[in-house]
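In this supplementary section we document a worked example of the pipeline. Step one takes a protein sequence of length 214 as its only input; no multiple sequence alignment statistics are reported here. Step two produces a three-dimensional model, which step three serialises into structure tokens for compact storage. The input and output of this example are shown verbatim.
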Amino acid sequence: MFPVRPPLVLRSFYRNVVWQMPAGQKVLYLTFDDGPIPEITPWVINQLREFNAKATFFCLGENIKKHTNEFEMLIKEGHATGNHTMNHFNGWVTHDFRYIRNVEICQSVLVKHRGQQEHDVADLFRPPYGKITFSQVKALKRKYKIIMWDVLSFDYDKTKSGEQCYRNVQQYAKPGSIIVFHDSKKAEERLRYALPRVLQYFTEKGYEFKSLQF
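The serialised model returned by step three reads:
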């Protein structure tokens, strides 16, 4: 299991991925994995709107196809969207050809529903579970910015409380941090507690929340 902040040794092994953004200004980068879904994603959008916050949503292709309205809401609100594979594949246990093909299928779905040409799309990719092999990184980095994280909220972990998830972010986030939440049913209870408090706390500290752009 990953700790709240990825250890330096892990970051040193995976040098061709993005762990955090430049730390010059008081800016944080909220990211949401596994959506969009109607039960959670619109609520997240409303919370972000209240604080004039932008975020990046790493979407599953199968959810984009099932919940097109929610995906279009993300685009309309000006949030960034990225690729999280079509079917939430674990790169450590998936053959490279099958894994990369699944990423490509998801990208086709993203492009179709964004209403843009492929070369106009910001090619962001986050591996599900953060599990990706060196050979998969080598193949995908030619096209994608592979986005990991600086702070993990653990909102997906049912053994954690919403307060613990909030404290994970409140204590460890710093300028340039990329923070992981999940707009999923599994994370819902903890997300609904932690996200408004994170937005409130850091806004009062003078931070902005921006989407990932390269």
